Amino acid sequence: MRLRPTVDSGLILLGLAALAVGQPHQLIGDGYERYAQLSTVLGEHRLPGGDYSLVGPLFATPFWLLDAVAYFNATVIAAGLGVTWLLLRRRVDGDLLRAFLLLVVAGSMVAVAAADFYGEAFTAMAVGVGLLAVALGHRLAGWVAVVVGAVNTPASLVGLGLVSGVETVRARRLRYLVPFAAGVALVLTEIVLRHGGYVGNRGSRTVMPYSGEPGFSYPFLLGVAALLFSFGRGLVFFLPGLVLPARQRLRARSPELEHVYLLWTVFLAGLVVAYASWWAWHGGQAWGPRFLLVGVLPASLALAVRLRDPGSRPLADLATLAALALSMWIGAASTAFNQLWPPQCGGDTEFLCHFTPEFSPLWYPFVARPDLDVRQWLTLGYHAVVLVWLAVPVISRIGTSSR
Fold first, then answer.
1. DSSP assignments along 264-319, one per residue
2. How far apart are the C-alpha atoms of 133 and 149, rounded to whole Å?
3. pLDDT per residue over 262-276, tens digit each?
4. Which of 318, 139, 360 is nearest to 232 (CA)?
5. Would you kindly state where each structural domain of the chain is located, as residue ranges?
6. Tens digit of pLDDT for each residue in 117-171?
7. What is the pTM of this model?
């Protein structure tokens, strides 16, 4: 028990180091497009048109000057977790807070977001930390961060609208609609100034009946089902902590934690609604449900409070261990194998990687069985240590209750 804070902190720092230097960093896809637009602003001193917001990329200006834009997202994630620690360190039990941060770093899919310049990392951290600040009473700074994060990914306005609506009903104050109105106004302003807005395209035509169509052409209910349950993108498989009941335990620990957990999950639900009917609901050639990255926060918090629940029953503890084991594999696979792509993940067979377990990024490493380099072995070893470290108290609890 005396060593736990030191070991927890050391494992968190090791995990952050792995995100920064323990994996390849790259500029691909719309991450490269964001970089190109930022280069136009800073290098050519003009405002470019384009499909993607400049809000997040502008914060990466120092990284552009240092030719280190590929490391911006890793820094954003580390900074977001650092601010989270500062906000909660005097309000929440240290064991629970450290378990939460460790799960975000080592037991989630943040490694993929840290390795590129896609917009989801900035949005997830700005919105996640902003909603935490709102729940803790820092309303002005919190809402500003939430609005900035949502504007960076305009589809997030649906999540912002739901959060504003929930807070309006909860507090019976119309002023909570102001953040949503501000977000809409800023997105429209950027579109007008840049003559932009996402015009979209379409994917490959395949045997899937709704493929090859542009815009919001995917049946909404099928999109929701796919985002929740598909083997390659489903939240059930990539954010297992979400299936664990946690609100009552969070309420007993801290009403503020229960509040932010609610806000995080409502925002996540808004993202599911926003993306479900879009033709590219799957995020293209991405590792897991990248559009729903903010979900790692409520999933990790729910799992952390279950791990640190001394009154939990044995069956509930077994479910917690199962969610922990899957979460640790998610963290390990997203760090060690995020460059391992099935050749079927493209063209007219890309749908196999969205729906079938064999080509899911979670399970494809067992199919491909690649030769591992030193970095991958170290990554797997680190996640195995974290798994054992977090599981031992729960296993001990089960053993004690069975006597």
1. HHHHHHHHHHHHHTSTTTT-SS-SS-GGGGGGHHHHHHHHHHHHT-TT--HHHHHH
2. 14
3. 999 999 999 999 999
4. 360
5. 4-200+208-401
6. 999 999 999 999 999 999 999 999 999 999 999 999 999 999 999 999 999 999 9
7. 0.95
